[in-house]
């Protein structure tokens, strides 16, 4: 295999070796879980769990103010950016209803370099700043995920502490 590289625009070094191109192409191949619909299956299972809670008139985790009255799936069409699952608790007519805006991901790395995590945070931030769909005094933003690694668990605890102390 030749070590001779190919010119890459914008690269400060100017060249990428054939070995680097091979590694990059392997890194971009989707994993079988993703291509087999594993992420979608997880999302549907989480959504079905909340529908079951609603049918059983159970309380929503995070919102212990009453039973679920409505669930909206794929809320992008209704103007939500955090759109996988919107849970409504209480009646809208009494102006005391609460919502959970949930983004569902089977797994996610909570790192600065993770594009999926960046998208989740950007979507949540847009909703947080939109007073028409998110009431800061009563609504919740949620990232619903499968098991976290120990590093991510520790990082999430740090973020939660920051949010508790921020006013």
The largest sheet, given as strand count, sense and whether it forms a barrel, is:
5 strands, mixed
- Give the DSSP E fraction (strand runs of 2 or more residues): 15-25%
Q: Which regions have little confidence, pLDDT < 50, spanning 5+ residues?
A: 1-11, 31-38
Number of helices: 5
| End-to-end distance | 58 Å
**Helix and strand pattern:** EEHHHEEEEHEH
The count of β-strands is: 7
Helix content: 25-40%
Strand order of the largest sheet: 3-4-5-6-7
Structural class: alpha+beta
Provide the gyration radius in Å: 21 Å
On the 0-100 scale, what is the average pLDDT? 77
The shape, in one word, is globular
Report on this structure.
Helices cover 37% and strands 23% of the residues. It has 167 residues and is α+β, with helices and mostly antiparallel strands. It contains five helices and seven strands. Strand 6, helix 4 and strand 7 form a beta-alpha-beta unit. The radius of gyration is 21 Å and the shape is globular. The model is unreliable at 1-11 and 31-38 (pLDDT under 50). The protein has helices at 18-27, 32-35, 38-55, 115-128, 150-165, and strands spanning 5-7, 15-17, 59-60, 63-73, 85-89, 98-105, 140-145. The N and C termini lie far apart (58 Å). The strands form two sheets. Strands 3-4-5-6-7 form a five-stranded mixed sheet, with helices on both faces. A two-stranded antiparallel sheet has the order 1-2.
